């Protein structure tokens, strides 16, 4: 079976899945730290982070899309800078570009809610609860992409929900300690608010991902052009909360309101998020949303080990049990007995 494009001999499909797992772990830890390491009075605005994410991701996608424009050697005009720009503009503002407005709005909501969740839940709790994305993604894949699921896969989804619930009731998790004081103790967290945010973020993630996959795979349009369209449609909804911020404090300038308290950790969060967005697009193109779920639950194990190494991680039996159930459920979901002669099932190799 074709493996698609490769980088240094490694298929892009597997490379992007593994990198996404590492990126997911890094993002949870960095984002959580960036939110809880300062008192609320010195917190940066998540709305700015979401907005900057779209600006940077859109610009990178635009550059890549531009470099990929192919013009026939016979068409001299199409090969000039202006000719190529016109060509790109025509691709970006195509007749069906409006289709990207749906995932764009959903992703902006999700990206904002992710900050609410990460600021109100322990990093590990957040990450495991966020696995419910697999559930919503599967649901929307069945509904919109007409994917057929076997009974063990439905069972795996049930198991996943149980695992997430078990982790929810765990008591201690990641404690980032500075000068002997757990940072989370100085930062008030509202677990219910965090959990509601996670649930809605999982719904929007599933729908947006599947919708993006549908648009991408039902047309010939280049992935990077689709990404530019996605970012363009995100700008308006991402700008709305930023404008609200400005309107509530108009005596300050635009830029200083926007980047108030926006320090190194905030920028690190944005950069890791930009990288993740680009990777997610690659994963959706070269594999699919359900395999993306597999990569992200691998990231639970990575974060778990990183937390033990980096932070004063208190492991509880319920946390370990819940996490094991989540990982087992993910394994079961991706396990297709007919192809079990090798490890091929794990990544859907054929
Ligand atoms: O958690 P999930 O995998 O649904 O997160 C997707 C993330 O990737 C979102 O932050 C979204 O903005 C980003 N994304 C992107 N470009 C795509 C698809 C997703 O930037 N084509």
Automatic annotation (TrEMBL):
<feature type="transmembrane region" description="Helical">
    <location>
        <begin position="224"/>
        <end position="245"/>
    </location>
</feature>
<feature type="transmembrane region" description="Helical">
    <location>
        <begin position="265"/>
        <end position="284"/>
    </location>
</feature>
<protein>
    <submittedName>
        <fullName>Nucleotide-sugar transporter-domain-containing protein</fullName>
    </submittedName>
</protein>
<dbReference type="GO" id="GO:0000139">
    <property type="term" value="C:Golgi membrane"/>
</dbReference>
<feature type="transmembrane region" description="Helical">
    <location>
        <begin position="317"/>
        <end position="334"/>
    </location>
</feature>
<dbReference type="GO" id="GO:0015165">
    <property type="term" value="F:pyrimidine nucleotide-sugar transmembrane transporter activity"/>
</dbReference>
<feature type="transmembrane region" description="Helical">
    <location>
        <begin position="194"/>
        <end position="212"/>
    </location>
</feature>
<keyword id="KW-1133">Transmembrane helix</keyword>
<feature type="transmembrane region" description="Helical">
    <location>
        <begin position="291"/>
        <end position="311"/>
    </location>
</feature>
<feature type="transmembrane region" description="Helical">
    <location>
        <begin position="154"/>
        <end position="174"/>
    </location>
</feature>
<keyword id="KW-0812">Transmembrane</keyword>
<keyword id="KW-0472">Membrane</keyword>
